[in-house]
Amino acid sequence: MGLDMRPLGKPQKGKEERFKEVFQILSGKREQKPLNIIDKLRGKKVENKR
Q1: Whole-number pLDDT of residue 1
Q2: Which residues have a Cβ under 8 Å from the Cβ of 36 and sit 6 or more positions away?
Q3: Cβ distance 32 to 26 under 8 Å?
Q4: Whole-number Å distance between alpha carbons of 17 and 26
Q5: Which of 43, 31, 21 is nearest to 8 (CA)?
Q6: What is the pTM for the complete model shown?
Q7: How far apart are CA 42 and CA 4, in angstroms?
Q8: What one-character-per-residue DSSP string does 1-50 give?
Q9: What are the extents of the domains in the chain?
Q10: pLDDT tens digits, residue range 10-47?
C-alpha cells in the first residue's frame, strides 16, 4: 500500500485535466492564466501572487 501524495480528493469523471491544472497551480508548478473580461464579469477572482 503506497501513500497518496495528492492532498486533494479524486477527480470527477471527465474533469481529470482541470484537476491536474488546479493541482499544478496549488503546488506552484504553474501560474494561473489571466482572466478575460467575461470571467471578470462572472465574478471570478485572480489568485494573489506570493
Answers
A1: 54
A2: none
A3: no
A4: 14
A5: 21
A6: 0.47
A7: 35
A8: ------SS-PPPTT-HHHHHHHHHHHHTSSPPPPP-HHHHHHT--PPPP-
A9: 15-45
A10: 888 898 888 888 888 888 887 777 778 888 888 877 66
